[in-house]
Amino acid sequence: MKILLVVVGVIVAIVVLVIVGLLVSSKRLDKQNKKLRLEMEQSHRLPNEKQHLLAYGANLALYRSESPRILPVKTGLDTLRQGLASAWDISNSEEAVETLEWLLTEGHRADYNELLAALHAGQSFTAEEVGKSQDCYESAKRELIKKLSFTESDFARVETIAAWDYDRAVNIARWSFIVGYITEEQAWGYIGRAADAASLIFDSWKDYFISFALGRAIAYEGDIYDILWNGKELLGEKDSIWHEFSIKRAS
């Protein structure tokens, strides 16, 4: 019995050490990423007006460990091209423009805003009707409440998943410019349209983040756990781009 207790104690100690090691490693990597982001921001600094526009793409930028304040990214051109082709079917200028126009004029909100309203109202659906969307929606709400202290009243204010479309539009425009599918002028035009539309719809960055997260949950049918820490940084850290700029843009 004593031997068994010793073995169990050793196993527990090893597990604790592994967990601590992973946490330390994660924090070290986060610091390295932030340092690299800061260095890139200093090298490619943009005026505040353009940084404000890029704030509407901050969710996806941080998810990819990129800076939300500048156009350049540390990801290589080949990787960006492959990502655009595999995830978005974008391999040329025409496809880039077509996708950006779709995100800005229709997007997933055209198909899923009605479902969001029904889920908010407490309606229940079968997997045959909505796939994994309802389960992902319910899981997303639980995680947002648990990890970011959001409330039911916070969710009630958000009637659209438009941030899911606009945030992606900002980043698709950014990447499409970097790989040469559109010009910088075109990129800022699309980014500006996304920012203007979001500014009219949302009253706070919290609402914008909820809209993005619920869009990921019900349209993408994805777990939102990997974007929660982006929200925590954007909404909670004093030096974040969302603390510097208002969700509303000057008319």
UniProtKB/TrEMBL annotation:
Keywords (A to Z) from UniProt: Membrane, Transmembrane, Transmembrane helix
Transmembrane domains' residue ranges: 6-25
Keyword Membrane assigned: yes
Domain DUF1266 span(s) in chain numbering: 84-244
Top-level division of the source organism's lineage: Bacteria
Organism: Paenibacillus woosongensis
Protein name: DUF1266 domain-containing protein
